[in-house]
Write a structure and sequence with these properties.
Layout lengths: L3 E4 L3 H12 L4 E5 L22 E4 L6 H11 L3 H8 L1 E2 L4 E4 L1 H14 L3 E5 L10 E4 L7 H11 L4 E7 L2 E3 L9 E2 L9 H4 L2 E6 L1 H13 L20 H6 L26 E7 L6 E4 L8 H8 L10 E3 L2 E7 L2 H4 L5 E2 L2 E6 L9 H19 L12 H12 L27 H20 L4
Parallel strand pairs: 1-2, 1-7, 2-6, 7-17
Antiparallel strand pairs: 3-5, 4-5, 8-15, 9-13, 9-14, 10-11, 11-12, 12-13, 16-17
């Protein structure tokens, strides 16, 4: 039987390899790490998480990303299975212990009898065979140039920033407190998965001043700061208005400070980052500040005056292709149909979305090798809404990375009058689950 070759062992590549192998197709997974490193990765493990340890909301009844979780579980995806095994308390979110998670994915893939993992960089577009390019936002320069040469157009680019991680023991708990926003979470442990650092107005204003004045990473000649709005550096948010952070990652609503009776003007949240509870990442605090500036600015946060950092934030260049122009609805490169693209390089944003597109590309490629044609999932599903968006639903001229959201779904018919938002979202997910199960059924 013909082998499926996959370039890139991130979320999308790992999920694609698993999906194809589970359907009986032999897979060769090509991963350049650790022989060729990247700015963001620390190990050579597959499915390594770098920007966050969270897969976001797990609510599959009223949240689009939670629905995507449900669909991936229904399709037997490896990412959701391993995420559940290495889940951390995080209220209504699905957060994982990132190192054991990636180690478990790596072990499962390497031990699969139909999957071979080959180390080394692929620098050219393959002329024959069935291939999936799932190299993600940090595609190597040589392969990016080969893609550009084939498509005849510049790959689009934006910049992504990583949030810092703090050692829990260095947080002053006489100032900070444990609480999930609105006390979400089924257990007491889940409700305390977050640490909260309060600010009064004067402290907030001083913090904003320091953010705006701090030394930032400079761009190279020819680069532009085309940020993805879902992952803006905090300095960029602050530049948009002094109150932007207070209505974003630093919003004080749903939290009660047990140390002081007055309501905080702003709150910095830290989310548990590992099972031991020794590491916490600063939620929403992606940054392009230089390391020295980060240390001094972040120690202005009440409770973090003596903070010790396991990792400081950083910024890196992400690339993605103009998928509406270049890909067909089977995720194949129109000019070279033996090559599919999957993951963040296609213009979806987020770990979950990336993995979901990998799962779909793996199934589609396996079906083709097995002599079958697999149509995309219905657009009423979360997976279908994403592939519809990237392969034809978006405007090519203004195409930008997109998280899954109900705005990508066909509208719900509001029979019987106007629905409330919660009821409307539940209607979206009910419809999607039925449609996704019908799509899965013929595949066995």
């Amino acid at each position: 039987m013909e082998k499926l070759h996959i370039i890139g062992g991130g979320m999308a590549g790992s999920e694609a390899a698993w999906a194809a192998a589970q359907l009986g197709v032999p897979v060769v997974l090509h991963e350049m790490r650790p022989h060729v490193g990247t700015f963001a990765h620390r190990t050579g493990n597959l499915a390594e998480m770098v920007c966050s340890n969270s897969f976001r909301s797990d609510d599959h009844e009223r949240n689009a990303v939670g629905l995507l979780h449900w669909e991936m579980r229904a399709a037997g995806g490896i990412v959701m299975e391993m995420a559940e095994r290495h889940r951390l308390p995080a209220g209504g979110a699905l957060a994982v212990d990132r190192d054991p998670f990636s180690e478990a994915v790596t072990e499962r893939l390497r031990s699969h009898p139909l999957i071979t993992v080959e180390a080394g960089e692929i620098t050219e577009l393959p002329a024959s065979g069935q291939w999936i390019i799932a190299t993600g936002p940090l595609t190597s320069g040589a392969l990016a140039q080969a893609i550009q040469a084939e498509t005849g157009a510049e790959s689009l680019a934006f910049f992504d920033a990583i949030a810092p991680i703090v050692y829990a023991e260095s947080v002053d708990m006489s100032v900070a407190w444990r609480q999930s926003r609105y006390d979400k979470g089924e257990t007491e442990e889940e409700q305390k998965a977050y640490l909260n650092c309060p600010m009064d107005r004067a402290q907030y204003e001083a913090f904003i001043d320091a953010l705006l004045a701090a030394e930032k990473t400079e761009f190279h000649e020819g680069e532009t700061a085309g940020y993805f709005d879902g992952c803006l550096p905090i300095e960029v948010m602050a530049e948009r208005g002094r109150e932007t952070l207070r209505f974003g990652p630093m919003k004080p609503v749903g939290l009660t400070n047990p140390h002081r009776p007055e309501k905080p003007y702003a709150v910095v949240q830290l989310r548990r980052d590992n099972a031991l509870g020794t590491l916490y990442n600063i939620v929403g605090f992606q940054t392009k500040m230089k390391y020295g500036a980060q240390t001094s600015v972040f120690r202005m946060i009440p409770g973090l005056e003596s903070a010790s950092f396991a990792r400081l934030g950083g910024i890196h260049r992400n690339t993605f292709i103009n998928s509406p122009t270049l890909l067909d609805n089977r995720m194949r490169l129109k000019s070279r149909p033996n090559i599919r693209f999957a993951g963040q390089i296609t213009g979806v944003e987020g770990y979950v979305e990336s993995a979901a597109m990998g799962l779909l590309a793996g199934r589609m490629a396996a079906a083709e090798i097995l002599g079958r044609d697999l149509p995309p999932p219905p657009p009423e599903t979360a997976t279908g809404a994403l592939i519809t968006h990237i392969t034809g639903g978006a405007e090519a001229k203004t195409f930008q990375p997109m998280n899954v959201n109900f705005g990508l779904f066909p509208p719900i018919d509001a029979k019987g009058g106007r629905r409330g938002r919660k009821d409307r979202y539940k209607a979206y997910t009910d419809r999607a689950k039925e449609a996704f199960q019908q799509w899965l059924a013929p595949q066995g």
